[in-house]
Amino acid sequence: MLNWLYSLFSNDLAIDLGTATTLTFVKGKGIVSHEPSIVAIQNTAHGGKKILNVGRKAKEMLGRTPGNIQAVRPMKDGVIADFDITEAMLRYFIGQAHQHRTLVKPRIIICVPAGITEVEKRAVKDSALAAGAREVHMIEEPMAAAIGAGLPITQPSGNMIVDIGGGTTEVAVISLSGIVFAKSLRIGGNKLDDAIISYLKKEKNLLVGEQTAEAIKIKIGTAYKQDKVEQMEIRGRDLVEGIPKMITITSSDIHEALQKPLSSIVATVKEVLEQTPPELSSDIMEHGIVLTGGGALLKNIDTLLKEETGLPVSVSDNPEYAVVIGTGRALEDSNLLKEVTLEHRS
After folding, report:
1. Domain range spanning residue 115?
2. Rounded Cα–Cα distance for residues 315 and 321 (Å)
3. What CATH number is given to the structural domain containing 131?
4. Residue 13 CB: number of other CB atoms within 10 A?
5. Residues of the chain with pLDDT > 70: what percent?
6. Is residue 68 part of a domain?
7. For residue 100, what pLDDT band results from cuts at 50, 70 and 90?
8. Which terminus of the chain, N or C, has less C-beta within 10 A?
9. Angle at which helices 322-332 and 141-148 pack, to 10 degrees?
10. CA distance linking residue 191 with residue 78, whole number of Å
11. Measured in whole angstroms, how far is the alpha carbon of residue 50 from the centre of its chain?
12. Is residue 86 a part of any domain in this protein?
């Protein structure tokens, strides 16, 4: 009786619970929120934790908080690192999607990395149920990304997807609504930011924060060396003198900084291609590789993969929304949902 009552007041949700950002899709409405996966918590005098802010407001606090307040990412490398804070974050996003109405217990589909363990699956399910879900289904990120990118995943032909998120890169070959072979690499946009921070520290004696590194990546980051060199002025702390300093960096500097994480992504793509059955390999030669995820927006990443694999490479429309759009489509199509969720495949 209660479940029936809750379902009357609830709109089902699709959630792309990412390391860097969380996107929420409401059945019948589309994408309703796109927020950083960050929670600001205050340590109380009694040793407890109080949630101050979630999402965009919490991100504004990164690197700017006093000692008793922390801005934390409860997701690490695509999986839950802090159960209680993830639950609080999910509760906030569920409430936000339903205008904080009380009689709400939605059915939820959540995206998870392809290489997720049983323990990690259980953590995702338990945190969503504790946050107020009535029912929880899981879909692997590369499958959701392929649906969102409009690939013909139900056909007997090979489709290759490379989804570069904040915490993971998912590489998969999909055919007949199933993943033929997949590899989940725990390198994504956040590791690219870390590589920029490390490079500036080592080569320029300058310490910058996460937000500055991300802004550099977006503005002048490039995966493939280009003839036209771009410049950017940045501020940070001089590690020699300990005072604020402004320097000019170039796209060539950032290209060099990103070499190591990008070479790991290229190696993973090649590994998946090597493991792909011959018949599906010929399909991929014809259709090429499709890139999704926020990392697909890095300048010239398609050129780099084209050069390294010799295959056609394209970036999907709205790549950062592909996973949540694909999850939303599965939510709205009960037949597709039955075919692609982890329950169906296990």
Report:
1. 2-37+73-141+323-345
2. 12
3. 3.30.420.40
4. 27
5. 95
6. no
7. low
8. N
9. 90
10. 12
11. 26
12. yes
